[in-house]
Design brief:
Blueprint (H helix, E strand, L loop, with lengths): L4 H21 L22 E7 L4 H4 L8 H10 L1 E6 L6 H10 L22 H4 E8 L18 E5 L14 H17 L18 E9 L1 H9 L4 H22 L2 H5 L1 E6 L15 H4 E8 L11 H4 L14 E5 L3 H9 L20 H28 L14 H16 L3 H23 L3 H28 L2 H13 L2 H22 L3 H18 L2 H8 L3 H4 L4 H6 L3 H18 L4 H11 L1 H4 L9 H15 L14 H22 L12 H24 L6 H18 L7 H18 L5 H20 L3 H5 L2 E2 L18 H19 L24 H33 L7 H25 L7 H31 L3 E2 L12
Parallel strand pairs: 1-5, 1-6, 2-8, 3-4, 3-5
Antiparallel strand pairs: 2-7, 6-7, 9-10
Family: Belongs to the PIGG/PIGN/PIGO family. PIGN subfamily.
InterPro entries: Alkaline_phosphatase_core_sf, GPI_EtnP_transferase_1, GPI_EtnP_transferase_1_C, Phosphodiest/P_Trfase, PIGN_N
EC number: 2.-.-.-
Length: 967
């Protein structure tokens, strides 16, 4: 199918379409559009809300037993306000956390494909509902809340500190918090009268805006947690500085009694942090944040009668200061702000107003919770109407727990309870409506996901059958027939195909126009039918499917039958290897079992190693695979760090490369400081380890990292691949070592633990694999010189029209090693919880886009080495088969087709495991699993093209050394 341009275009287009389908099915925005605002029935409770966020602050580091480091906050908790915990949802990141706080809903999963740092919020928030907004904070958070329709509005003032202050290695990280409070202090000194102004009416033309919102974003806790970790003394001093800054804020209000009496304060964090300085996942230390509220209409401290029962009841703290504490969802703070200011709740808010945090009478609480319930019911009604309009009414199923009739009945009940002054019952009724409405929103958002998923899985199944039929029909045809095969594959029954496709296209347009369906979603439903038509209207495909494929595998040579198990048994074992790889995505230790099976392969399939010293090589291969099997059992990289181990790994890689190159040199071994490209790279690998070690030492000493280290690191990153490509005439040994070091150097500059050792062992196994697959002796294979063509190869006569063991083995081994390179260290399951220290050689100032790009490049480095080795195996194999009557491209075609079938097999598994809830770690992991699986087939083609450019067909240095040994 890859043998014609049409086939290539079709397959690539199908890959892209199936990949994009996950974002059309799983990762669509849950936001509801088209909501109208009504005038709030309850007046504002306060004129001002001061909202202070300590980015990344750990709750247990603030709420210590005596709160000895935070006297100001301790006095508030004990004497003036209420305290408790805000429970975030994963992903525990800055954007999702702040979106939940100010927009009232948890991160729009559709933004998984978008950047977040500089994007304005594309939905409603309390910033847009307030009459005046004053915000100071980090350049990565505060600017994104600029209301798009209020740009240039003098009532909105948003200011952030310079991006250069986000330096993780700065001597005084707390300067960012001081900057925020300094700017607020200047504002209060010069313009505090602005906070006395508020639009008490809030006109419809102005969106019923009321009150003033002050937002202070303190980000030192996040920076300090990443660099010095939450358990450090520096982190404790940072908390002391936060307390001192809050004391400064309070002093500014105490000087104006009128202002203080009309202000409510909320102090919390957007997310927490792990002990090793990361966040993004779902541990308690990441999802639970401190919450302290005080001011007008906020309850004062309430003693707890039963201390033993309340102490640690929620499993968070073993003490509670003898006071009642509250647990709220993070999104619930949004309707709390709206209630305090008397503004409409932001359009997409799904928060439930925490009435316990309001000190007002019961009738007012009922009015507030009623507005909250009516707001979410509006969203539910819009979702209901949208889904109803897109489906046949006879098949449409309404959310059974909250039908339209049930909504009417529950609202009537709540109204009756309010009229009878049974306020507590009315509040519970409205709360039930809110919770059921939230379930209904989720139900309608995922309404047809199962059916759409079934269509995608069916498309994969039919496509795999097409690939299989195409491969079998090619091998079943004589060489003289193969040129016509490609054409017939795409031109069989052209009139039938054209008529059918025209009918499908017409059907898509009709369904889309009548039921307002997305064009792509309609196409996904028809895709299995289209592929089935192509499959069944092709005569050769039908012939393959109608006959048993036993003859296809039974065509292996007599010699192979004598020397090992049949292809069917090998295929079963290879499938087991893939299962280990597949479940290794989720449980890394299972990859170790796959490595053990890989190590035992020469004992199972004797055609794998056909060299003279077979037994010794079997033991070496087994030993290498046993060492490789150790890494998935080690802790995930990111939880620990060891610059010493990084340096040792660099020394080992450099030394091994130098010794190997000297052993393979045909002339007098060059001096270590040779200017030849491959020896320059050997030195570069050693330098990379030294740089990492120096940077870690400087960070440990809280010393600034010199600019020279950054410059050298960037030069190594860019120059290493270029140096590897300098020489145009190299032996296989030099080229492999050069390309491996070219990828090792940037990889090593971002290492924090044992990744360098893993890279070394993985490439050793890959080198041995390429050598064994060639069937050549050590000096023959690594002495091959990369030339422009394979004309010097001695021809080998014979007919080869079946799939042999190498055809099957090589794609499976390649896929397994690609997966192993991704998950052997566990540091690329998600870039969401990475330790910024891994990129300190390149930058120390926070830059998520650049840091993410560097980490993605780090992920790619090992797989590029495996891809290069696989390309070399293919080129050697094609060259050795140059004399066969079967065209050389068919061997490549067969292995590529097998790779695509494997990729489809993995993709179907991971499509079923896709997640749109949970942490960015969970969501990103499920997407990356699916992408990796899909990429295997497509990447094999790209890597082959990549290999053809870097590894041109090899010929022997001396023709007499090469004696092709076909397997």
């Amino acid at each position: 199918m890859f043998s014609s341009k049409l086939g290539i275009i079709f397959s690539v287009s199908l890959y892209i379409l199936l990949f994009y389908s996950i974002f059309d099915i799983y990762y669509t925005s849950p936001l509801t559009h088209g909501l109208s605002y009504d005038r709030p029935s309850v007046p504002g409770l306060v004129n001002n809300v001061v909202f202070i966020v300590a980015d990344g602050l750990r709750y247990d580091k603030l709420f210590t037993e005596k709160m000895e480091h935070t006297p100001t906050l301790r006095s508030i908790v004990m004497d003036r306000g209420s305290w408790g915990f805000s429970h975030t949802r994963v992903p525990t990141e800055s954007r999702p956390g702040h979106v939940a706080l100010f927009a009232g809903f948890y991160e729009d999963v559709a933004s998984v494909t978008k950047g977040w740092q500089a994007n304005a919020v594309e939905f409603d928030s309390v910033f847009n509902r307030s009459n005046q907004v004053f915000a100071w904070g980090g350049p990565d958070v505060v600017p994104m809340f600029q209301p798009p329709d209020r740009v240039g509005d003098a009532r909105v003032r948003i200011e952030s500190y310079p991006h250069s202050m986000l330096d993780f290695t700065a001597e005084n990280i707390t300067q960012v918090d001081d900057w925020v409070v300094d700017r607020f202090s200047e504002f209060m000194t010069a313009e505090s009268d602005l906070l006395l102004k508020t639009d008490s009416s809030g006109s419809a033309a102005d969106g019923f805006r009321r009150g003033n919102l002050v937002f202070l974003h303190l980000s030192a806790a996040d920076q300090m947690g990443h660099t010095q970790k939450p358990g450090s003394e520096e982190y404790t001093r940072m908390i002391q500085n936060i307390d001192a800054n809050i004391a400064r804020v309070l002093k500014l209000f105490e000087g104006n009694k009128q202002l203080a009496q009309e202000t409510a304060f909320i102090f919390t964090a957007d997310h927490g942090m792990t002990e090793w300085g990361s966040h993004g996942a779902g541990s308690l230390h990441e999802t639970v944040t401190p919450l302290i509220v005080w001011g007008k209409h906020i309850p004062t401290p309430s003693s707890v009668a039963d201390l033993s029962r309340a102490s640690g009841a929620d499993g968070l703290l073993p003490f509670n200061y003898g006071l009642k504490h509250y647990n709220v969802r993070q999104a619930d703070l949004c309707p709390l702000i709206a209630a305090l200011l008397g503004t409409p709740i932001p359009a997409n808010s799904v928060g439930e107003l925490p009435l316990d945090l309001l000190d007002v009478d019961s009738s007012l609480k009922v009015a507030l919770i009623r507005e909250n319930a009516q707001h979410i019911l509006k969203q539910l009604h819009i979702k209901y109407e949208e889904q109803k309009a897109c489906h046949y009414r006879v098949f449409f199923r309404e959310f059974s727990k909250l039908t339209q009739n049930q909504i009417t009945a529950m609202l009537a009940t709540a109204t009756s309870q309010t009229r009878n002054q049974d306020y507590s019952a009315a509040i519970e009724t409205y709360r039930s409506i809110i919770r059921l409405s939230l379930e209904g929103l989720n139900y309608y958002h995922k309404y047809d996901r199962f059916f759409m998923g079934f269509c995608i899985v069916a498309s994969y199944a039919v496509w795999s059958l097409m690939l299989y039929a195409d491969m079998v029909s090619r091998h079943g045809a004589r060489p003289s027939q193969q040129n016509g095969l490609t054409k017939s594959t795409w031109t069989s029954s052209p009139s039938t195909l054209l008529v059918f496709l025209a009918l499908c296209f017409t059907g898509v347009l009709i369904i889309r126009s009548v039921y307002h369906r997305s064009l792509l979603r309609t196409f996904y439903q028809l895709l299995p039918l289209i592929l089935s038509t192509i499959l069944l209207t092709n005569s050769r495909f039908r012939l393959v499917l109608s006959r048993s494929s036993g003859h296809f595998f039974s065509a292996e040579s007599t010699n192979e039958k004598r020397t090992g198990p049949r292809l069917g048994m090998l295929l079963l074992l290879l499938t087991v290897l893939m299962e280990f790889a597949l479940w290794g995505f989720i449980r890394r230790p299972l990859l170790s079992f796959g490595a053990l099976l890989l190590g035992a392969w020469p004992y199972i399939d004797v055609s794998f190693i056909v060299l003279s010293n077979r037994q010794t090589l079997q033991r070496l291969w087994l030993a290498a695979c046993l060492v490789l099997a150790v890494f998935p059992t080690l802790p995930v990289v990111g939880s620990f760090s060891s610059p010493t181990l990084v340096l040792i790994s660099s020394v080992c890689v450099s030394a091994a490369s130098y010794v190997f190159l000297q052993k393979r040199c045909e002339s007098k071994p060059p001096h270590f400081w040779s200017t030849e490209p491959h020896f320059i790279l050997v030195v570069g690998a050693l330098v990379s380890g030294v740089l990492v070690f120096l940077v870690r030492c400087l960070v440990a000493l809280s010393a600034p990292i010199p600019l020279l280290i950054h410059v050298i690191s960037w030069i190594l990153l860019v120059a290493s691949p270029a140096v590897a490509m300098v020489s145009a005439d190299l032996t296989v040994s030099r080229k492999l070592v050069s390309l491996t070091l070219a990828f090792f150097i940037p990889f090593n500059l971002m290492n924090v633990f044992y990744e360098g050792a893993f890279f070394f062992v993985l490439t050793t196994v890959a080198f041995m694999w390429s050598w064994f697959e060639s069937g050549l002796e050590f000096h023959e294979f690594f002495g091959l010189r990369l030339a422009s063509d394979a004309s010097a190869l001695p021809p080998v006569t014979g007919e080869h029209t079946c799939i042999d063991r190498a055809n099957l083995r090589q794609p499976f081994f390649y896929v397994f090693l690609v997966i192993y390179s991704f998950f052997g260290t566990g540091n690329i399951a998600s870039i969401n919880t990475f330790d910024p220290v891994s990129v300190y050689c390149f930058m120390t100032v926070l830059n998520p886009a650049a840091m993410g790009t560097l980490l993605i490049f780090k992920m790619v480095c090992p797989i590029m080495v495996i891809g290069t080795v696989y390309a070399l195996i293919g080129r050697v194999r094609e060259s050795l088969r140059a004399g066969l009557s079967t065209p050389r491209r068919d061997t490549h075609h067969t292995e590529t087709t097998i790779l695509m079938i494997i990729a489809n097999f993995l993709a179907v598994h991971f499509f079923a495991m896709l997640r749109d809830e949970g942490s960015w770690l969970d969501i990103g992991e499920s997407i990356s699993h699916y992408v990796i699986a899909m990429s295997i087939g497509l990447a094999s083609v790209l890597l082959s093209l990549f290999g053809r450019r870097m590894l041109t067909p090899p010929t022997p240095t001396e023709p007499r050394l090469l004696t092709p040994k076909l397997k």
